[in-house]
Every structure is written in C-alpha cells, then in structure tokens.
Amino acid sequence: MKKSAVPFAVLAALLAVPGQAMAQSGEVHFKILGTLVAPDGKIRDVKLDRIGLPAGSQTKANDNFVPTVAIEYFLADSISVETIAGVTQHDVDGRGALAGAGLVSNAKIVPATVTLKYHFGKAGGIRPYVGVGPSYFIFINEKPGATTRTLGATSQKINDTVGAALQAGVDVPINDKGMFVSVDAKRYFMRPLASWRANGVEVLRTRHELDPWVISAGLGFRF
Known about the structure:
Blueprint: H1 6-14, E1 28-38, E2 42-49, E3 57-61, E4 64-74, E5 79-85, E6 88-96, E7 102-119, E8 127-140, E9 143-144, H2 146-150, E10 155-158, E11 161-173, E12 179-189, E13 193-198, E14 201-209, E15 213-222
Antiparallel strand pairs: 1-4, 1-15, 2-14, 3-6, 4-5, 5-7, 6-7, 7-8, 7-9, 8-11, 10-13, 11-12, 12-15, 13-14
C-alpha cells in the first residue's frame, strides 16, 4: 500500500461541515473495526555491526489486516479520549543489497494508544474529527528470520517503544438507535531498536523508522 497523506486530505475536506458536535459529556462509543496496519520499517541507523552489512542494505516490514476494537469516552460535547485494542503480526525482510533476505519473523505488536480527539459536525449528522496522542508499542515473541538464522542468529529482539500518533476520521450515523459507521486513519511515528544475537553475543543492532499507517473501518455504537 502506498503511504500517502490521502486519508488525511479527504477527511480534512469534511472539517468544513458546520454545526455542533452530536455527542454529550459522559457518552461512551464502542467500535468494532477491520484494520490495515501498513508499516515502513526501513533502517534509520546502524548502531552495531559485527557481521558486515553490505552497502545499500535496507529493510521493509510487511502489511497486515487485523480486527481491532476502540473505546471512546466524551469529556465534553466535542472532546473525547479514545483507546484501541488489537494485536498485529509482521515480518521484516531485506531490500536493496539485502533483497530477498528474511530478517525478522512473526513479530507481534500491541499498539497501546490513547488519543485526545476534537469532533466537528451537526447533531445527528456526519462527525469528522482529528486527534493526537502518545503510543507505546509492545513487541512480543519476535524471532530471527530465515536468512539471519542461516547466518547464525539464535535470537532476535525489538525493544518496546514510545511514540506518537496523529489521527483523523469520520463517524456517520446509520440509524436513530446509536449505530454508526466509522472510518479512521492514524499515522504513527516510532523509532524502535532491533537486535540480533548469536549464542548470547549481540552481532547486529539497528534503529528503524517503523512509522505505520493504521487505517480502520467498521461499526460503532453509542451508549
């Protein structure tokens, strides 16, 4: 998937919708979503290299589509706090001089995120929003890829990482019972460290621009 600002550009056009926010203070929204997680993963810096990476070495993390849920609490009519829950799994493969190399296998990520959101739109109508907040990516059970195992790597670790997320989206009511369709786009900014070891000795350490786009769509319910 091409990483572009298109989702934000489209949603920004909706911010011109006049009127007051439709939610009330204390209201809770629950969303069930299908989510595309599309990370970058390129090498930003090589911190330690005892294996001699060839010039032009680069990396890329694969995309994944997963179910997620979001819970949102309204602090005021137009201001809310939202958190998401889900687990996504990715491999990291080589690019450039490392093309075809399997470097990381089955890295599971828990993207713990809280965003503060501001909502636009008329009561009962389309409700665009923007948001921003911190994120803490927890990496679980990652392993060396096929190529790094062949070269002698016996373990691999990506450190848990603090980052930030920008968010834009829109909620569209579909009935008068509190059900709505939600479309959401987040761009994360993360700089995790990855480390490979051979029999306990660290042989390679790299910092990466993970920076995933997280694009979601699904149903929401107001309570």
